[in-house]
């Protein structure tokens, strides 16, 4: 009855260790990836516990305390152009910045992977229809497409996230389609079909099981780009609106302060840089750890 | 080869048409009436109707598209709602300014990328290789608009050696010292992504070529290191050039953030103005021209690569 159980045991016996524990073991030996993962976990915790960690109200400023430099008494990272505490705003800023960077990639992963699996598995006219439509979006450089869509939709967090989702659907769909097409042609899929599996079972068990891993790794590599683009849209005034704390928008409003207080003005960008580089390195580490050919 | 060229040219046509459809539909993504930006809130119905007729907004949408496309093909992209001047004339200067910036950026990116990539490819696994890899990862992870601000803080605010804003006096590009000084910081800022990507590509190519049997054979027959290097260059050039060509397209289309930081009077700056003044014809025109430039550039890169790389056989 249960056909998967014995085969899993056979595989486990043959390799002495399951696939995921191999991946975990490899990851734990990769110091750089572990460090990045810990930093990102820290930023995530910081975002979740922002009200507990922030020493001041991120919205409330004082005209008397405008643009205090880094290291001022009581204001560890100084204050911004409206006298609001930078540390508190950076802590609260992690919330919107992370959501705006990660959510579009997750949405695009769901939509793009669905389109890619359908196109790759069904092939034929449906494949042509989906993939040629996606080709159109490749005619636009990603920054231009994001700016054009969110510019036409109008400024706002939701519109910016819609724009970024549309930017990331085509590459994810393309990767999914190419992996699915490869998997579909493999012998074990034919064997499953011959033994009576219907399309739904084939996709659920055989295709998704083999396609989701690579597509997921690819999607993690997009998070870094998404963080930069999302903050970039806010920087242009197309994402979050003031006085909301968001790193890209903070960078924009502090631009006028670079002559008075350059250190403070550069802080939000340093946060974006740190998170983005950690996502990039973690994605590389995951790719190496999950690569079975190694 | 000839047939591949013809086929590739024909494949571009549907893409170009789809691009025009996407650019045209941007109007309908926008909330509210395209005219709302210039109309007073208490405008009479009579005035609205007259303006709609003037801008052709009273006709059915497919007809509007056909008229718009027909004019666009003849180089008429309509009139900017905000300034009342033709979009084409606004665009011409902006695009040439962006092209100057993108060319300088590509030049820096390609030179640095080739040097870094070659060094890392030759010295694989050494600390030098690790440094180069770190620079490449940082290059694709850095928010370049922030890097631009940091450069301004260092070179304009702290040391006061380079200008922070604009493209120099006059607004048009002239080959003199003052204009060159203005292009330095934005060009460096815009070059970080191509530098990183070219570095990665060249490093992988050089490492791959050096590991091949023909290189061993060349060394065995006593060819000098420089002679071997020439073979590496010949083998790595087509792909590296193609990668840089595509990056030039990304620089042209993605310059909006850097142009905003440096107030560079290019197409990105124009796009920014168009968005915030809700100037739909200007928005459509700018995006159309940039996207068509990108499509054309990718086509040229593909054709050139096919032409110069004898290993690529396309039917």
CATH topology of one domain in chain A: MetI-like fold
Question: What is the name of the CATH architecture of one domain in chain A?
Answer: Orthogonal Bundle
Which two chains share the most extensive interface? A-B, 43 and 47 residues
Distance from first to last alpha carbon of chain A = 34 Å
Unreliable stretches of chain B, pLDDT < 50, 5 or more residues? none
Structure description:
The complex is a heterodimer of chains A (294) and B (315). Chain A has 294 residues and is mostly helical. Chain A has a domain at 94-290: MetI-like fold. Helix content of chain A is 74%, strand content 0%. Chain B has a domain at 99-314: Orthogonal Bundle (MetI-like fold), CATH 1.10.3720. In chain B, 75% of the residues lie in helices and 0% in strands. Chain B contains 12 helices and no strands. In chain B, helix 6 (144-158) crosses helix 7 (177-210), helix 6 packs parallel to helix 10 and helix 9 (225-253) runs antiparallel to helix 12. Chain B is globular and about 85 Å long. The mean pLDDT of chain B is 86. The A-B interface holds A 132, 135-136, 139-144, 147-149, 151-154, 224, 228, 231-232, 235-238, 248, 251, 255, 258-259, 262, 265-266, 268-270, 272-273, 276-277, 279-281, 284 and B 14-16, 18-19, 22, 26-27, 29-31, 137-138, 140-147, 149-150, 152-153, 157-158, 249-250, 252-254, 256-257, 260-261, 271-272, 274-276, 283, 287, 290-291, 294-295.
Topology:
The complex is a heterodimer of chains A (294) and B (315).
Chain A lengths: L3 H12 L3 H11 L1 H18 L1 H4 L32 H37 L1 H14 L4 H12 L3 H28 L2 H8 L4 H38 L10 H7 L8 H29 L4
Chain B lengths: L1 H28 L15 H11 L5 H13 L13 H36 L4 H15 L2 H15 L18 H34 L2 H8 L4 H29 L2 H7 L4 H10 L3 H29 L7
Helix pairs in contact in B: 1-12, 4-5, 4-7, 4-9, 4-11, 4-12, 5-7, 6-7, 6-10, 7-9, 7-10, 9-12, 10-11, 11-12
């Amino acid at each position: 009855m249960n056909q998967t159980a014995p085969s899993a045991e056979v595989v486990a016996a043959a390799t002495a260790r399951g696939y995921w524990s191999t991946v975990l073991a490899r990851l734990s030996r990769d110091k750089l990836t572990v460090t990045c993962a810990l930093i990102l976990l820290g930023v995530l915790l910081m975002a979740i516990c922002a009200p507990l960690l922030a020493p001041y109200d991120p919205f409330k400023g004082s005209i008397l305390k405008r643009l205090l430099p880094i290291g001022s008494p009581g204001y560890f990272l100084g204050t911004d152009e409206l006298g609001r505490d930078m540390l508190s705003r950076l802590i609260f800023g992690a919330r919107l910045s992370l959501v705006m960077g990660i959510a579009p990639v997750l949405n695009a992963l769901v939509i793009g992977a669905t389109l890619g699996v359908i196109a790759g598995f069904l092939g034929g006219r449906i494949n042509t229809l989906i993939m040629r439509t996606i080709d159109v979006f490749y005619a636009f450089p990603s920054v231009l497409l994001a700016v054009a869509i969110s510019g036409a939709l109008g400024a706002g967090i939701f519109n910016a996230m819609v724009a970024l989702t549309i930017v990331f659907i085509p590459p994810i769909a393309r990767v999914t389609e190419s992996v699915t097409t490869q998997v579909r042609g493999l012998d074990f899929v034919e064997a499953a079909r011959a033994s009576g599996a219907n399309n739904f079972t084939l996709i659920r068990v055989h295709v998704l099981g083999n396609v989701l891993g690579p597509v997921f790794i690819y999607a993690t590599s997009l998070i870094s780009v998404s963080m930069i683009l999302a903050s970039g849209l806010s920087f242009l005034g197309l994402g979050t609106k003031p006085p909301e704390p968001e790193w890209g928008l903070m960078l924009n409003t502090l631009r006028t302060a670079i002559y008075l207080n350059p250190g403070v003005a550069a802080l939000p960008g340093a946060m974006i840089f740190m998170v983005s580089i950690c996502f990039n390195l973690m994605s590389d580490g995951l790719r190496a750890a999950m690569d079975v050919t190694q | 080869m000839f047939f591949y060229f013809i086929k590739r040219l024909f494949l571009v046509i549907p893409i170009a048409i789809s691009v025009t459809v996407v650019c045209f539909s941007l109007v309908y993504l926008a909330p509210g009436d395209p005219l709302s930006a210039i109309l007073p809130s208490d405008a009479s119905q009579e005035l609205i109707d007259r303006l709609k007729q003037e801008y052709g907004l009273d006709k059915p949408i497919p007809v509007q598209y056909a008229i718009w496309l027909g004019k666009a093909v003849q180089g008429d992209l309509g009139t900017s709602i905000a300034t009342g001047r033709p979009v084409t004339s606004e665009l011409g200067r902006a695009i040439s300014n962006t092209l100057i910036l993108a060319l300088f950026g590509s030049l820096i990116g390609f030179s640095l990328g080739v040097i870094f990539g070659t060094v890392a490819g030759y010295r694989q696994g050494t600390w030098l290789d690790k440094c180069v890899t770190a620079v490449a990862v940082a290059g694709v992870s850095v928010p370049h608009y922030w890097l631009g601000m940091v450069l301004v803080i260092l070179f304009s605010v702290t040391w006061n050696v380079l200008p922070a804003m604009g493209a120099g006096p006059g607004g048009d590009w002239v080959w003199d010292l003052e204009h060159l000084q203005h292009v330095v910081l934005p060009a460096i800022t815009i070059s970080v992504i191509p530098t990183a990507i070219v570095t990665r590509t060249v490093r992988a190519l050089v490492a791959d070529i050096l590991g091949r049997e023909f290189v061993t054979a060349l060394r065995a027959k006593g060819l000098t290191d420089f002679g071997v290097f020439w073979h590496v260059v010949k083998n790595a050039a087509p792909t590296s050039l193609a990668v840089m060509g595509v990056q030039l397209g990304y620089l042209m289309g993605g310059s909006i953030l850097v142009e905003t930081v440096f107030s560079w009077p290019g197409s990105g700056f124009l796009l920014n103005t168009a968005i915030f003044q809700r100037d739909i014809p200007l928005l459509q025109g700018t995006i159309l021209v940039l996207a068509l430039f990108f499509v054309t550039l990718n086509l040229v890169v593909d054709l050139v690569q096919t032409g110069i790389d004898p290993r690529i056989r396309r039917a």
